[in-house]
Amino acid sequence: MKSAEDIVQEAKAWWTTEIIDIHPGKIAVRGYPIEELIGNISFPQMIWLMVRGDLPTPEQAGLLEAALVAAVDHGPQAPSISISRMAVTCGVELNNAMASAVNVLAGIHGGAGQQCMEIYADVARRMDAGEPIGQAVELALDAWVAENGKVIPGFGHRFHPIDPRSGRLLALTEAARDKGAVSGRYVDIGREVERVLERRKGKRIPMNIDGATAVIYAELGFAPELGRGLFILSRSVGILSHAWEQHQQGGRIKGPMPKSIPYTYAGPARRSLPPQD
Fold it and tell me: 144-194 pLDDT, tens per residue?
């Protein structure tokens, strides 16, 4: 028979966290009083503190912020954004519209950054095992294609011949490397992937936003699984802004296309139901 004290201790241990400590009149995040954090650290620094447990250097915080800024939006043709707008016209609240949008940020739409980080991590493991970078990239790409198909996440873009965001992000990462804030290892890996893909395809397949943010998040030491979470934090800003804009514009039950543009029906021609016995 458990004592009352045993039951209380079991209940207290049910949720164990190192993230936050709350008592009446007191809130501490990773040991820092919340009143000391407010007004003294930025939102990207707070994200880092919450996820990583410590405070980033100014250079690390700047890189994280740059990656978050770069991926906030890509227009209403992006499925997650259009879903948020359609949801609003169905009469739901902003939080429901945002949740509907975030829920489609999965492997195909929204998952490329995490997947690219997984490729970079595989390359890094092979380099640690003694493979030169070129061979490590070749082997990692072969392994990815064998398991997932020919599309290499983080490279090429269906809309942009050259993604205007990636060059700026890489330049910032290289500047941080020159200051000793990051190692530059994943910059080299990302550029080598680009070179290998160009050799394989016979044309340049430039790094896109997902490949560039994957470089930054990997340089900053984030696990690949966190890559998608960080992307969702970033894209949620665009989702919110589009949902709010649609709310202000009004409209009822807007579908993916104007009603003047029909869908394609490919089923049987109109027919009568056979006589029933």
Answer: 999 999 999 999 887 888 889 999 999 999 999 999 999 999 999 999 999
**3-state SS, residue 214:** helix
Do 49 and 55 touch, CB atoms closer than 8 A? Answer: yes
Let me know: does 141 contact 135? Beta carbons within 8 Å. no
For 56-256, the fitting CATH number among 3.30.930.10, 1.10.230.10, 2.40.110.10, 3.40.190.10 is: 1.10.230.10
Contact indicator for 126, 182 with CB cutoff of 8 Å: no
Region(s) of the chain under CATH 1.10.230.10:
56-256
In whole angstroms, give the CA distance from residue 163 to residue 206.
8
Answer whether 233's CB lies under 8 Å from 68's CB: yes
- pLDDT over 90 (residue 128): yes
